[in-house]
Amino acid sequence: MELFHDKEDMRKWSRAMKRAGKKIAFVPTMGSLHAGHLHLVERAKLEADVVVVSIYVNPSQFAPNEDFGSYPRDLRGDLDKLQPFCVDAVFNPYDLYVRDAGQNDSELSERKASSQQKAVNEGADDTRDLTSKRQRYTHEHETWIRVEKLELPLCGKSRPGFFRGVATVVTKFFHIVEPDVAIFGKKDYQQWRLVCRMVRDLDFDIKIIGCELIREEDGLAMSSRNTYLSSAERLQALSISRSLKKVKEAVLNGTLDASSLVELVKQEIIHASGIVDYIEICERDSLQPLQFINCPAVICIAAWFARVRLIDNLELEPPQS
Ligand SMILES: Nc1ncnc2c1ncn2[C@@H]1O[C@H](COP(=O)(O)OP(=O)(O)OP(=O)(O)O)[C@@H](O)[C@H]1O
Ligand SMILES: CC(C)(CO)[C@@H](O)C(=O)[O-]
Ligand code: BAL
Q1: Number of domains making up the chain
Q2: Which of 19, 187, 232, 264 has the fewest CB atoms within 10 Å, i.e. is most exposed?
Q3: Ligand 1 binding pocket includes 30 (Cβ within 6 Å)
Q4: CA neighbor of 82 nearest in space, from 46, 58, 48, 53
């Protein structure tokens, strides 16, 4: 398995693969890998000849009050988890917002050397490094991708700037890795939809695949942030998936008005001491709110359990007529 910290090395490798006639599948992640991510890797292997996984905690998608500094980072553990899956390359840039044009060569090579060393000593990020990473993207970067309507509802309301950061970094990855196929999880439903729309609108020649949401045995949607939960909070958080099961049954039994279904979820979460961020039933492509389930829909949820914000969703089918 190749490990690249430098974007030029990553691009060179991808182009060599292309020249050799290989199809490239790409799985972007923020690391701290779990079985949900590995499921995406398995899917990627079915789609292409070689698989690239990126591991990068992207500073531009975090608001200043969010968990960029404390987000779990474990490069060595992640590489161990990927090894059995015969992933071909891992792209772990130290910083994708460093301005590397128009500088003198010695400053550039010094930055590259220091960034590679830091990435190798993963975990060595200190507060000063993280603060400077956050500042660099605000000071050294001024070009952003916005998916203007899809970025607004749901997570976009409570995390302003989040989808701008995601769309921009995914675009950067697409230009660096140059994949034929890219795999995203439906756990981050709005993110997946937004990337599909961006690829369509900007004519990227990349096939986007959305993979099913993977759950723990007890129903909790797998997520790197689950590690923040205490065991008591984790039990409370099960109220989300429990409520989704109830929604599924209610729809099968003919309850189709969104407000009743939303109320059902809300009560379950509040009863478990969770704080609801949003619960919405939306049309699947546009993510516009629906009053009734009269077309393929999705119920999307975000809720806080203590300091941890979790998201989950379930696709809902309208009744057969
Ligand atoms: N449970 C899951 N099922 C399917 N895909 C998932 C799951 N968890 C994460 N993914 C997908 O893995 C990719 C990388 O996600 P990321 O590294 O942010 O992990 P995460 O578990 O979603 O982390 P976080 O807790 O920060 O939301 C995304 O496409 C995401 O949708
Ligand atoms: C797509 C992504 C890797 C962009 O940073 C991130 O938002 C994620 O892990 O879902
Ligand atoms: N899984 C999406 C990345 C984030 O929440 O920051």
Answers
A1: 2
A2: 19
A3: yes
A4: 53
